[in-house]
Amino acid sequence: MSRSTQQPRARRLPRDVRERQILDAAVQVFSQHGFHAASMDEVADVAGVSKPMVYTYLGSKEDLFSECIRREAKRLIDAVTEGVSTDDELAPDMLLWLGLRSFFRYVGSNRDSWTVLHRQALSVGGTFADEISEMRTRSIELVASVVVSTGTKQGIGEQAEKSGAGLAAALVGAAESLADWWIDHPDVEEGTLASWLMNLVWLGFGDLVQGAVWRPR
Amino acid sequence: MSRSTQQPRARRLPRDVRERQILDAAVQVFSQHGFHAASMDEVADVAGVSKPMVYTYLGSKEDLFSECIRREAKRLIDAVTEGVSTDDELAPDMLLWLGLRSFFRYVGSNRDSWTVLHRQALSVGGTFADEISEMRTRSIELVASVVVSTGTKQGIGEQAEKSGAGLAAALVGAAESLADWWIDHPDVEEGTLASWLMNLVWLGFGDLVQGAVWRPR
DNA sequence: GCGTAAACTTACTGGCAAGTAGATTCTGCC
DNA sequence: GGCAGAATCTACTTGCCAGTAAGTTTACGC
């Protein structure tokens, strides 16, 4: 039961540092077990802290999870935002390309974060589902705006607006799914993943924009 | 006395009928709360039966969940299989088209089933995750075989094989994600969803097959 | 009719995990 | 040095829920 043997009794740390450690531990534990199966004892243990600390600093289990979601969502969004920000104005396809690369890069080096956001948060329902689906909706709208603006610029406005949101949802889902697939096939670079999607999606868009349509025979 | 009293009290029913009722209830409850948050009491309650029945017929909570997954996965696969089976040999794009339509049709009229399979099963981990990811892998491989065979027939074999699995994963994910999006935008017909995806994906494939490539500038 | 097995119930146990009370250090500051 | 208060712990209480023991009722074959 004695924890780490040779530490001179973990020093006292200022609150914000401990909070960060606890949140890190929580993300890891939640990503491994999911919200319900995760225990506060384990979170405290992984954080190297006793349970009352967790409650004192982060509140209830729901509060803690909520805070994880919020922090990780912000990190992801910041990573992507930072990845697409440049001085020049970007063509829409380059925008998408940079966004996808940033996304995959983030997922690649923050698996736990991604797992919590993508798999665990959705399955809990209630408050969290709202927060997550809001983030998701924002991503989709962002992508949709690229799609729609490209479409309208080319003069197929009505159709683009109608299907834009749906296509964007599909694209976001494709990226998410590819990220999951990546976990089982790590011997691929993130640029490759992004370029697969670009090839699939942008070439398809290109045809649509030029008026090509697939229809069943 | 004799059976003159007609209580609305559920009559005694043969085992297989009850088992079906219990499984139906379980799918509903699991889809609403997820594995851990769902209680066996509620399952029994929704099924209109007492708890020991559930244990007698279906075993432990894990067994029950497992059986739900198995049954619903089979129903989904059967629905899609049935949707693409015809007498004639189908062109690959028509195969994909029919498959997508069947998939969306199933999801549309079996929301609970889809939720359990897609959202809940993944988040539990362990045995279930294996079963689910096996089903998923099979779907992806199926799609991949269509993609790859189309590619090789057109003479870009090497590249098609390399990216085929990834593209298939992306496509499957796009379909799943579009299915989720549909839940929030139900005023779209399932054929429309399928045709959006076909337009996106098949036109993109078409270009790839003809050697077109998008690359960053 | 009547006995037997299958269908079904009530009412419990046991354990795990969320959340807390209250005592106990340490640390910065005068 | 000593004290105020923040940081931290041990050791509980509480409630829920998976799983079960043991009994009761009904269908149905003969």
Automatic annotation (TrEMBL), chains A, B:
- HTH tetR-type domain residues are 16-76
Q: Does the keyword Transcription apply?
A: yes
Q: Which GO terms describe its molecular function?
A: DNA-binding transcription factor activity; transcription cis-regulatory region binding
Segments of the chain annotated as binding DNA: 39-58
Output the InterPro entries linked to this UniProt entry.
Answer: DesT_TetR_C, Homeodomain-like_sf, HTH-type_TetR-like_transc_reg, HTH_TetR, Tet_transcr_reg_TetR-rel_C_sf
Ordered alphabetically, the record's keywords are: DNA-binding, Transcription, Transcription regulation
Taken from the record, one Pfam family name reads TetR_C_46
Does the keyword Glycoprotein belong to this entry?
no
One GO BP annotation is: negative regulation of DNA-templated transcription
Tell me the protein's name. Answer: Transcriptional regulator, TetR family
